[in-house]
Design brief:
heterodimer, A: alpha/beta, six-stranded mixed β-sheet, 12 helices, 39% helix, B: mainly alpha, 2 domains, three-stranded antiparallel β-sheet, 73% helix
Chain lengths: 293, 257
């Protein structure tokens, strides 16, 4: 099964009648890094609340590992362990004054004993490099630290998929980089990642699959080099073209670069090619983290 | 939230919260039960020394904290020291007030001095707990004392929410001031009304989101989290009990002498 999550004609209306999602059909590749791109109010967060069953579609369905999700209690509990959701604002997710206690919450809900939970919490804190925060009160942490603690609270439940709503929102470049490196690490260990963002440059350099949504509908999905090169689609979803593609196209137009050369997949490849513009092909290596511009 | 920060930074933070609570409560009981100036003074001095020494609370800060209840305490003591009676008989000093005299009698003066020291000792005991024991540890004790978990959960949630709440209120207030809110009485009322409404709707919304976030991590009714780990230390327990025995003896020595 290549896709870990799929949605089939998923509609969602809020209680007040607002229709937030109009027939969403999307696929999330297993072990991939997927970005859901869209302007504010496109329905990204509403969509994310469906991925672990917090919202139930008004019609249509959510498919996890090829099986349609039933919204029974036991299935939901399992789904919420399989799909970890990190909220955009850590202050809504953190509830305990003690960092260690906050991280342990999900584990104890899964029935871990105190000593098992303690071990897991220590392990995850080590993995994220936040051991020294464990003894600190949550409300004295910086936003960057809070984001890591919120991630730890989800990661500790050992999910197959981690869904991060706006992982870099509110973070400076250094902290955004740290967070993305942590996510990269998880990806290398086999976790499927889904993030939402309106930062096209981040989506272009960092992900392997993008889903463009606007007005509660999927406009396009696929490889970032294809989806994000489509000017009219981007315009329809009020997004700019990634700077790599934009400058690449202008270089090709002015003849400085052969028009046959495919666009670089990351910032590193871009500069590599510029350094040797004779048209030597770069390795089609795995796209590594290329920074948030 | 000054006091809370001191509790987190206190070197005594790692001491078993049960020991700290025991010292506070037992000493409170002894102070209230023995009702003697000597015992109260002794408690005030020893607890203050404990806070200033091993507790590493700065003298200036401790003094500032003591000043807060001191105002109320002095007002209370003055009203107790002053008595009104028909004649000047037995009054140390008095002023005429129509057919009555207002003044200080030896017994009322003594009662107010006893009260003063007793309150000061109790305040020191409570500050000891407040300055060494973060709220998470107090919840820990209450849970061990079999407080219903719902109450303990609500307590920790409210405690954490206070910080969010204060920060949000301060932020909204600043934003209002930068647009000339709180300028004059009428504008102040209007700004305050807007702030209250904002706070209410904001936190209603946020509580929905927090609930979702809890569900996302498998919430099923109770906020089960890791318990902190502490070790009882015999030496501390012995010292706490020894200290209170000394207090009891101090009272009795006074009677004998």
């Amino acid at each position: 099964m290549a896709y870990i999550i799929e949605t089939r004609n998923l509609h969602f209306h809020y209680n007040d009648g607002t229709c937030a999602l109009h027939g969403i059909n999307l696929v999330i590749p297993r072990h991939g890094k997927t970005a859901v791109l869209g302007p504010n109010g496109a329905g990204k967060s509403t969509l994310f609340l469906h991925f672990n069953g917090l919202l139930q579609p008004s019609s249509g369905s959510l498919v996890y590992c090829g099986e349609t999700v039933s919204y029974q209690r036991s299935r939901l509990k399992q789904l919420r362990q399989q799909v970890g959701l990190v909220f955009p604002n850590p202050d809504t997710q953190l509830f305990s004054a003690s960092v260690a206690q906050d991280i342990s919450f999900g584990l104890l809900n899964l029935g871990y004993s105190q000593s098992q939970a303690r071990r897991q919490v220590d392990e995850v804190a080590h993995q994220l490099g936040i051991e020294e925060l464990l003894g600190k009160p949550t409300h004295f942490l910086s936003t960057g630290q809070k984001k890591l603690v919120a991630l730890a609270g989800v990661l500790v439940m050992n999910p197959e998929v981690i869904v991060c709503d706006e992982p870099t929102a509110g973070l400076d470049h250094v902290n955004a980089r740290i967070l993305l490196q942590v996510l990269d690490q998880l990806h290398q260990q086999g976790t499927t990642l889904i993030i939402s963002t309106h930062d096209v440059d981040l989506a272009y350099g960092w992900t392997s699959h993008v889903i463009l949504i606007s007005g509660g509908q999927v406009l396009s999905q696929g490889h970032p080099q294809q989806v994000l090169a489509d000017t009219s689609l981007l315009k329809a979803s009020s997004l700019d073209k990634p700077w790599i593609l934009e400058s690449w196209e202008s270089l090709q137009k002015s003849g400085q670069i052969s028009s046959e050369l495919p666009p670089p997949a990351s910032r590193e490849e871009y500069f590599q090619t510029l350094a040797s513009p004779t048209g030597k092909h770069y390795d089609n290596k795995v796209i590594s983290f290329s920074g948030n511009r | 939230m000054g006091i809370d920060q001191y509790a987190y930074a206190s070197p005594l933070r790692s001491v078993h919260p049960g020991e700290k609570a025991l010292l506070t409560l037992l000493t409170l009981l002894v102070v209230l039960g023995l009702d003697s100036i000597r015992v109260s003074g002794l408690v005030f001095i020893s607890i203050s020394l404990l806070l200033l020494g091993p507790g590493r609370v700065a003298g200036r800060i401790y003094l500032g904290l003591l000043l807060i209840p001191l105002v109320f305490l002095l007002l209370g003591c003055v009203t107790i020291a002053v008595t009104i009676q028909p004649g000047p008989a037995g009054l140390l000093a008095s002023l005429p007030a129509g057919p009555y005299r207002i003044g200080l009698s030896p017994s009322s003066l003594q009662a107010s001095v006893i009260l003063f020291w007793r309150c000061l000792a109790c305040v020191a005991c409570m500050y000891f707990l407040a300055l060494t024991t973060p709220v998470t540890q107090i919840v820990f004790i209450l849970k061990r004392l079999r407080l219903p978990w719902v109450l303990a959960d609500v307590m920790s949630l409210i405690y954490y929410a206070i910080f969010d709440f204060l920060a949000a209120a301060a932020e909204i207030g600043r934003a209002q001031k930068s647009r000339c809110g709180y300028d004059g009485f009428k504008a102040s009322l209007r700004s305050l009304a807007a702030l209250s409404f904002q706070m209410f709707s904001k936190f209603l919304h946020q509580s929905d989101q927090t609930y979702d976030a809890l569900l996302a991590r498998g919430f099923s009714g109770s906020l089960a989290v890791l318990d902190e780990e502490f070790a009882w230390r015999r030496r501390n327990l012995a010292a706490i009990i020894g200290f209170n025995l000394v207090l009891v003896m101090a009272k009795n020595v006074g009677v004998a002498g």
